[in-house]
Design brief:
It is built from four helices and no strands. The chain is mainly α. Helix 1 packs antiparallel against helix 4, helix 2 runs antiparallel to helix 3 and helix 3 packs antiparallel against helix 4. The longest helix has about 40 residues. The radius of gyration is 19 Å and the shape is elongated. The two termini are about 35 Å apart. About 5% of the residues have low confidence.
């Protein structure tokens, strides 16, 4: 029964992580679209832009929390026991979560730098450019970390 509860808990955390991932993707697309539009049309940096930029960061932090909870297994999930005939499989199962976490932490760090840099800038166009550059780098890092799953 304990294993069943652990599996259910793991699945629930995975579902929440996936929902937050989709909302993060929506924030990322909105943010990039608004930044490009703001740069091209010389629009003022609005409260909505600030909200979307902060929501992007919050979604990354929530993903980090739930990702770390999944990584700790909750009694299930990845099985890292040593089986001599399956060492290659074990290494690939172990490498992906570590690689993914490291790249996600770098993406979170880069996005935080972008948010801070945009807050320190007064001109709207410069804010849009900083948000676009830093957050795009964060999105690319996240995409690279996810591509290793499917490659």
């Amino acid at each position: 029964m304990n294993d069943l509860n652990a599996i259910i808990s793991y699945d629930a955390v995975k579902i929440v992580h996936d929902i937050v991932s989709v909302s993060f993707l929506l924030f990322a697309v909105t943010l990039i679209f608004r930044s490009v539009r703001g740069i091209r049309n010389h629009l003022p940096y609005a409260k909505t832009d600030k909200f979307v930029a902060i929501a992007f960061i919050v979604a990354l932090y929530v993903q980090l929390i739930f990702g770390l909870v999944m990584f700790t297994n909750l009694g299930s999930g990845f099985d890292f026991q040593y089986i001599p005939d399956e060492t290659t499989n074990m290494v690939s199962k172990r490498l992906w979560p570590v690689e993914h976490i490291v790249l996600m932490l770098f993406a979170l760090f880069i996005a935080n730098l972008g948010l801070i840099a945009s807050f320190l800038t007064k001109q709207s166009r410069s804010r849009f450019i900083k948000i676009l550059v830093y957050y795009s780098i964060a999105v690319v890092l996240i995409a690279i970390s996810l591509l290793s799953i499917y490659a």
